[in-house]
Request: fold
Amino acid sequence: MARRIGSRYTAHQILGRGSAGTVWLGEGPDGPVAIKLLREDLSSDQELVGRFVQERTALLGLEHPHVVSVRDLVVDGNDLALVMDLVRGTDLRTRLDRDRRLAPEAAVAIAADVADGLAAAHAAGVVHRDVKPENVLLDMQGPLGPGGSHRALLTDFGVAKLIDTPRRTRATKIIGTPDYLAPEIVEGLPPRASVDIYALATVLYELLAGFTPFGGGHPGAVLRRHVTETVVPLPGIPDELWQLLVQCLAKAPASRLRASELGARLRELLPMLEGMPPLDVDEPETEPAEEAADDTPQSAPPPAAGKPVRRRGAVPLVPGARPADSNRDTHTSMRVPAPDELAGGARGTARAPRAAGSPRPGSARNRAVTRRRRLALAVAAVVLAAAGVGTWLAAADDDTAPPQDSGNSAPATP
Ligand SMILES: Nc1ncnc2c1ncn2[C@@H]1O[C@H](COP(=O)(O)OP(=O)(O)OP(=O)(O)O)[C@@H](O)[C@H]1O
Reply:
């Protein structure tokens, strides 16, 4: 059923729902548009409405081929709406759900588009703060790009910032999507442009691998990994691409590339990646939920003991929000962990991509492989002990957990 939004727009049909509201296919004076109608509890918040109006210029000013432009802001009675360019296509999460992994050329082309969009935003002083596949739209009506990829456009600019008002989120709270949160945010520092680079590198890793570098298990474990763990190389990834990922996933924000440079470097890699098939990587084991300590996010239902939890996110962007027809819980709202919580605990760590076909940790097959290796090691121990180097074996005993560097340094190349 059609619905009037302000005096100039009509919303015809729901395109989808997110945690902040519903996106409608609509019509305006200049043709079709997408209208994001914010949830009623948000639109009735006077402080939030004030911020929308204040940020109007920044939100409306962004024009770029890889950014979904906001055309208008409507404040009308109980309605608070963002009127955007309509993108005829799908979002990158839907594409990933369908294909699981993309060929490196297509993945890099999409990431380069997003980097270019970010470069324009950062030049205008706007930090996105919520770069993730859900916020990348693929234009399926335009011409195809490298590797058959569709043009990618970044959407939802400024929305995270607007909703993240001091009253809603005290300084000790983290707002965002755990898998894509830069370590400095986890540590409570204010988000700068480099958080978008970290999030984009996480998205690129996910496009290549089919999972995020630090995701899996309870959101608290995910946040800790961002701060303490080093990204583990993906089997078969070209070295130049890996180095770029590592640089942009650096713990130190200053070590990451700027968006414009990242876009240019990614495009330089495209010819080299032409025709390369998707990487042959299996998803690492998801940790059981009971690893969650006392940092259960607000409003998240307690997971059943021992039951694996879903890989992404926990609770909506705004406490109390529940996407009505979406099964994607993509945001978290948690307190900033204390330093000892971030540093401590091996639980939920030691995730590593496995080459396809290699056994999962803890599986029967893995235990059989482990037994065989232990036997081989025992035999080797006898030989080595005879040679007087038996101590070497003690260090080599744990063959199931890959080495994890908890520092900030870049890992070795694959
Ligand atoms: N400008 C647009 N043109 C076409 N479809 C859009 C547009 N913006 C959003 N959509 C679609 O509307 C749906 C909901 O988008 P929305 O931005 O509200 O949520 P989200 O980003 O998926 O989740 P969240 O807001 O919780 O991060 C998505 O499936 C997206 O594909």
Summary: The first strand starts at residue 3 and ends at 5. Residues 87-289+307-365 form a domain with the Transferase(Phosphotransferase); domain 1 fold (CATH 1.10.510.10). Residues 364-386 form the longest helix (23 residues).
